[in-house]
Each structure stands twice: as C-alpha cells, then as structure tokens.
Specification:
The complex is a heterodimer of chains A (138) and B (484). Chain A has 138 residues and is an alpha+beta fold. Chain B has a domain of 124 residues. The chains are: A alpha+beta (138), B alpha+beta (484). Chains A and B meet through helix 2 of A and helix 9, helix 12 and helix 14 of B.
Chain lengths: 138, 484
C-alpha cells in the first residue's frame, strides 16, 4: 500500500499507542483542509448550536509543517472546551496561517485526542499532490 | 531505518544490547530489558528505531534503557529512559510526553472483599459521579487563577491548605508532591485557561480508577511496611496533568522547533526538539513542566479525596468503615534532575522517563523516611481486567536501569487493529463473566483498551524481577473499573 493516499483524502495508518493518519491534498491549503476533516472524523464531532461570532486566529512559524501542527492543536484546544470551529476562510503562506471561523458547541463520539505531534510530520510533494503523516497523542 | 535482530546482542537472560555506533548518530548504547518474544514483537513497529533515536539526543549519557512494556510512541518510545548531561545535554519535552506527570496513586483500605461486595454497584456509581471523565471534562472543584498558581508553585501543599490532604500525606508521594518551579512565566494563558476547570477530573484514553483486591502477598515484610494485607480492597488511580500539561508540552515543542536553529542540533525527529538544560529556553520549559507535575500530583490527590468520600458515603451509612490511605503516588511521564550511577560514578543528570517509573532501592536518599528501609513501592497496573502488581525497588536498579522501572503492561495491538478485532460490548460481557464491573466512556475505548490489546503484565513483571530491578510484593485483581 502507498504510504499516502493517491488522491485528495486521508487514511488511518497502524500505530501501536497513538493514532496516525496519512493525508494528501492537491495544494497546501487542501492538505490543511483534509487534515481538519480527518480530525473531525476521528473525534466524530456532532455540531450543535453556534456559540460565537466570527473569530480569526493568526499563526506564525518557521515551517509549513509547524504551522499545520499548530493549526490542529488550536482545534484540539476548542475540542477540550466542547466546541468545534467551522472555518469560513483560510490564508496560508510559507510561514503564516490566518483562519476565520465560527465556534459551535459540539459533542464527540470518537477517539480522544490530546495533541497533534511533530512525530514523522514532513510535507512531501509528488505528482501534483502534497502529503504528510500525522501522529496524534491519545 | 530498518532494524534487524542481528543488530541486537543478548547480554543476559532478559537483557539485550544495541551497541553505541551500531547505527549512525548514536552517542550511547541502548539496553533493552525483555524476553525474546517481547523483543520479536518490538521489531514489528518503530519502537526500537525510536529507542535508537533517543540514543542520539545531544548530550545523552550512560545508556538508553528500555523497559519490557515498551511500545511505539511519538518520537521517543513509551517505556524509554534517557539521561542527559546537565552541563552539555538537552531537555526534550517529547521524551517526557504531553501528559506531564501522568502517574498512578495507590490506596490501601481496611475493608475486605466480602464486606465491600454488597455495595459495589452503588460505590461504582458514586465514584463515577464524583470523578468526571472524558477529554475536556471539568472537575468538581472550582478554583480561581490564584488557586491554580498556588497549585503550580506548591503542589499538594495547596490540597493540605484546603483540607483535602492529611498532615503527613505528602510523605507518600514522589518528591513529596511538590517539585518547585522557578517561576510560572513560561506558562501560556491558554494552559492556565485549560487547567482552571479540570482539577479533580480523570481524563480520557487509558486513564482509570480501579477497585482491586490484594490477591496474594509475595513478601510479607515489605507488604506489612506498605500496609498491604491479602484479601483487602485497594484502589488505583491513573491520571495526569490534563489539558494543563498537554498545553504546556504543545507550547514548548512548538517553541523548541521554532528556536532550535540557534543550537545547531541534528535531531532525527521534530518531536525530539530540544534545548540545552542550562539555556533560558530549557530552564523555562523545566519550570513549566514542574508546575504541570505539581498540577498532576494535586489532580490525583483530589481524585483520591473524591474516591475516599465516595467510599465513606456508601459504606458508612451501612456501618462499615474503609480507611482509605495512600500507599504511594508516582509519576511515569516526567523529567528531573537526579543523581544516577554513570559508569560507576554518581553524576547529576537530567533524566527523562516516558512511560517509566522511578525505582529506588533501600537507603536511597530520594526516598521518604517511611520507605527508606524497604525501598520504593513500584506500581505496575495491568490492562483493563487483568492483574496489577505492587513491586519494591532494589539497589540493582541504580546500576542497571538508572533507578527506573516499567509502568504497566504496554500495548501490543495498534488501536485500529484492536477496533477491528475486538467488539466493545464483548469486552464488558467477558469482564462481567469474571465478576468485573466497568463504567466506560465509549464502546470505541473499550475495544482499544481491551486486555487483548496489551502485553501480558505478568510476563512484564517476571522480566523486571529477572533483571533484578524490583521484586514482587503483591498482586491485585480488579473487581470494578471506571475508564476515562
């Protein structure tokens, strides 16, 4: 089996203690979106009522991988507060990410994720697709 | 990197060696404490690669030790121990973990199995209500920001000041439940916000509260010193620093990754991002980690307080007393300055234990007076529904394992395989047939945490005793479990 999905998407990869996924997008923005969707599916979010007006978070980092991990960890903090950010806008450069979202109350039925880690994260470009592994501490 | 068994040499019945320089980047050897079958299993995932990566941490000294419950983690193996030079070495947040000071509190009681059983259902409900579980679930204790700062600065002293710890309670906790941070400046607002509402909560994943019976005593003298009697009820509480510790680790791994260029280290995995122990960045992390360790000590203290209340609420109205008291509370995800034996000489190092407990033999200066003659109680919880063990540290641990021991059974099945192979309701039914009651957060968790997903804890303990690091004192069997 290929290490990564061969088109846009994600799948779970065997990991003894934690949760690992392989993610692919056709652009960096798409890779971030697929990672966000993967996280949503893993924790099995059921969205309820909106609980905030639009908020924008600005992240800065020296690498795109670090931005991706920081982005996912921001979402995990919201999950800790039983909220889910529904993203309306996302702007990514090599060292910055701004994303705008509305927060919704949520309940989760899936796995319990404590943090997105830097373990094995490396965004690679191949045949028009961007891919990476992501390992989540559970 | 592919690891062949040929690269690993057997040096004792339960000891295996990967020599320094066997793989590029290694600074010290890796010693694995394992039975051959465990070693073969470990070759199936990346845990040994991760142990080799640990041996390449800048400034690592002596050796990397790997416990028999080792399994693949994220960057650093779970069950791994690595010490770094205080002068020339680094601190690695990923080698301590996100759940800083995840650990185990063990309580003995004066109640027998027979006296407890009529009330077990009511007691399980009472404990489940008193100890909230699940990611993000708040605790029942409402505290202010200044309370939280006091928790960070004084550990379980805060619990005593609030009448939730008896006068000498700190004597039964590793480092007396208080590892002093220099300051709290490195802790983000986000970490404080997450920490405010979660004190006294269990959390999720493999965290649990388990009611056990002390089934058999192996060492009468040590058991008596630990206050353990065959046939009596005991309680294990497994939890950590909750979102507070997770956020501190998240913040610092990110910061270390962003700022590591200045130190010019070559590391094999970004999760092993590090900073010199003596650098401002390193000291800030150590200080924040100490605060999180204190938070975890208090969290387990409040959980123990809630469990004690639950026992009293259910049993006293029926004329029974339980007298729960702490035998010991230890950390298994932590880093600290300690003196270890490095090639025969005592040396102060920064020791990282991830999924490994401290293990001190009799007479060790780090021991509290109550255990100076016996050695330290070492708590080895089994998987859900299997036996757990109380061991005692020996002086052999100083030479062999840098005063460290295993922390549990250790996973053998990945979570995805466990979900495919094991049906959650079957787990409840099978445990029920053996008289074990369980309250769990989700079916998924039941599959992932099923006994079949873990190694045989008895084989893990036999290995530890075979190496001589610790000795068996008592074995426990569960009767009721609250899973996070």
């Amino acid at each position: 089996m290929n290490r990564y999905p061969e088109s846009i998407g994600y799948f779970e990869v065997s990991h003894t203690a934690d949760i690992a996924i392989a993610v692919t997008g056709d652009s960096i923005a798409s890779l971030f979106q697929q990672s966000y969707f993967a996280l949503k599916e893993m924790v099995r979010v059921a969205i309820q009522e909106k609980n905030s007006q639009s908020v924008t978070i600005q992240l800065r980092s020296k690498s795109i991988e670090a931005l991706l991990i920081a982005f996912l960890n921001e979402i995990i903090v919201f999950l800790d507060q039983e909220s889910w950010p529904v993203i309306s806008e996302m702007n990514i450069t090599e060292d910055s990410l701004d994303f705008t979202f509305d927060l919704y109350d949520c309940i989760t039925h899936g796995c319990t994720i404590k943090a997105a880690t830097y373990n094995e994260v490396e965004i690679v470009y191949h045949s028009g697709f961007f891919s990476t592994m992501l390992v989540f501490d559970v | 990197m592919e690891i062949s068994k040929n690269a690993i040499r057997q040096i004792g019945p339960y000891e295996w060696l990967i020599e320094e320089k066997q793989f590029p980047g290694m600074h010290v050897p890796v010693v694995l404490f394992m039975q051959e079958s465990m070693l073969n299993e470990s070759l199936n995932d990346r845990s040994i690669v991760q142990a080799i990566h640990a041996a390449s941490i800048p400034g690592v000294v002596n050796k990397v030790c790997v416990m028999p419950d080792m399994h693949q983690g994220y960057g650093f193996p779970i069950g791994g121990v690595a010490a770094t030079s205080v002068e020339e070495g680094v601190v690695v947040p990923g080698a301590i973990g996100y759940d800083i000071n995840c650990g185990v509190r063990f309580l003995s009681s004066s109640i027998t199995e027979e006296a407890l059983m009529p009330f077990i259902d009511a007691l399980l409900d009472e404990i489940n209500n008193a100890c909230p579980s699940g990611v993000g679930k708040g605790g029942r204790f409402r505290i202010t920001k200044s309370d939280l700062e006091r928790v960070c600065q004084s550990g379980v002293n805060w619990a005593r000041e609030n009448n939730m710890l008896e006068k000498d309670g700190h004597l039964y906790i590793e480092d007396y439940g208080n590892i002093k941070p220099d300051d709290l400046d490195g802790i983000s607002k986000k970490a404080f916000d997450r920490g405010l509402h979660q004190l006294g909560s269990l959390g999720a994943g493999n965290h649990f509260i388990e009611i056990d019976i002390i089934r058999h005593i192996f060492d009468d003298r040590i058991a008596e010193a630990f206050g353990l009697k065959e046939g009596m009820v005991a309680v294990q509480i497994h939890s950590g620093s909750r979102g507070f510790g997770h956020q501190i680790c998240t913040d610092f791994v990110r910061l270390f990754n962003d700022q590591m260029d200045q130190f010019k280290y070559d590391i094999p995995d970004r999760e092993l991002a590090c900073a010199p122990v003596q650098s401002r960045l390193g000291r800030r992390y150590i200080s924040a980690m100490n605060a999180a360790a204190n938070y975890a000590f208090v969290n387990r203290q409040l959980l123990a307080y809630s469990v004690s209340e639950a026992f009293s609420n259910i049993l006293e109205k029926n004329g029974t007393v339980s007298n729960l008291s702490t035998v010991y509370d230890l950390a298994h995800n932590i880093g600290k300055l300690e003196r270890i034996k490095n090639h025969g000489k005592l040396e102060e190092v920064f020791i990282h234990r991830k999924g490994a407990t401290r293990c001190l033999g009799p007479g060790n200066n780090y021991l509290p007076e109550v255990y100076i003659k016996t050695g330290q109680p070492v708590l080895v919880p089994g998987s859900m529904g299997t036996q757990s063990w109380v061991l005692v540290g020996t002086s052999t641990a100083e030479e062999k394992s840098m005063n460290s021991c295993c922390h549990g059974a250790g996973r053998v099945l990945s979570r995805s395989k466990a979900r495919k192979k094991i049906h959650g309701p079957d787990v409840v039914n099978n445990l029920g047939k053996r008289g074990i009651k369980i309250v769990a957060g989700s079916q998924r968790m039941l599959s992932e945490e099923a006994p079949q997903a873990y190694k045989d804890v008895n084989a893990v303990v036999d290995t530890i005793e075979g190496v001589g690091i610790a000795k068996k004192v008592a074995v426990l069997t569960p009767i009721a479990v609250v899973k996070g």
